[in-house]
Design a protein that fits this description.
The chain is an alpha+beta fold. The protein has helices at residues 9-19, 27-37, 81-95, 110-118; strands spanning 2-3, 41-45, 50-59, 64-72, 100-105, 122-123, 139-144. The protein has one domain: Aminopeptidase (3-Layer(aba) Sandwich), CATH 3.40.630.30. The radius of gyration is 15 Å and the shape is globular. Keywords: Acyltransferase, Transferase.
């Protein structure tokens, strides 16, 4: 696991498309995130290819950290890589003295919800209809970092 670099962009785009095939980030969005928030993108790299990534930001005067994307390539799921990524994101947020971590999860993504809950995240208990756009509902999950 390491921070993203510019040569990673094509592989990052590939992984994002594998992880989020219905709604991947366009190349220019990943490029912009890397340019503006490069220290907030972690990648899983085996030396030959990327197998996952996490994108997180700090907002609200540094009090809230949003995990915008966290995903592991389908062929590498089930090996604890998502947990490793999430733990590293939380470590970075704590280092930045962020008080609360938040993310949104598709309501049918039981694996992601279970992962977040296993590390102490809780949800508001309601599905936010059309949160991202019409037809894209989300559950907001939060963790107080203390």
């Amino acid at each position: 696991m390491r921070g993203v670099t510019e040569p990673d962009l094509p592989e990052l785009l590939r992984v994002d498309r594998e992880v989020f095939p219905d709604d991947p980030y366009p190349y220019f969005v990943l490029r912009a995130h890397m340019e503006v928030h490069g220290d907030s993108i972690l990648v899983l790299d085996d030396g030959q290819r990327l197998h996952g990534y996490a994108l997180f930001l700090t907002v609200s005067d540094g009090c809230i950290g949003w995990i915008l994307s966290l995903g592991v390539a389908p062929e590498r799921r089930g090996a604890g890589l998502g947990r490793r990524l999430l733990l590293e994101v939380l470590r970075h947020l704590r280092e930045r003295r962020v008080h609360e971590a938040r993310t949104t999860v598709e309501p049918t993504n039981a694996a992601a919800i279970t992962l977040y809950q296993s590390l102490g995240f809780s949800s508001e208990g309601t599905v936010r209809r059309d949160y991202l756009e019409p037809g894209q509902d989300r559950v907001i999950m939060k963790l107080v970092l203390g």
